[in-house]
């Protein structure tokens, strides 16, 4: 799930929890063991997930790997070990009492995972606590992390565009039409990625408010 969508979905838990008097037993973060690495957007999403939860909630977080049927036992074990022991991946959250489990595509495995949460004391996520204290969404740790990630990504895209423009100028001087066409296409792609990075954080506030209105209307109908 993209970072913004993930944040919006979890933010609605704050309103729903307050309305219903419910608290969370925990949070499950799913990761495909068939993926070679946790890189790019997946890494960004996981860092924001950490800020959503907050360290106090880590003992109620389960990192669940799935798609084990798509790898050999040796491949899966190697990837699981790397994810659990490298600071770039899941080690920091596991060191603070989150748990890493396997979903082996069976009902028994799913029940076992859920049982780990049923036994937990209910927890309040950092994002719920921040909003409950009256913070605006742009003041939350999760939003700041998203904004930081998107700003860094936008800077990389701007640098890439600058390099492409230099290559385009060289191609124009040499009248290399084939290279110019290839560069134009690449520039269009990077420009689209830049716009997405620049807009993602700014979209968050309006999308969050729209989602809250939807949840409020749903609860109002239910209560009525």
From TrEMBL:
Residues 166-192 have a biased composition (Basic and acidic residues). Keywords: Signal. Residues 166-205 are annotated as: Disordered. It comes from the Eukaryota. Residues 1-21 form the signal peptide. This is Uncharacterized protein. It comes from Paxillus rubicundulus Ve08.2h10.
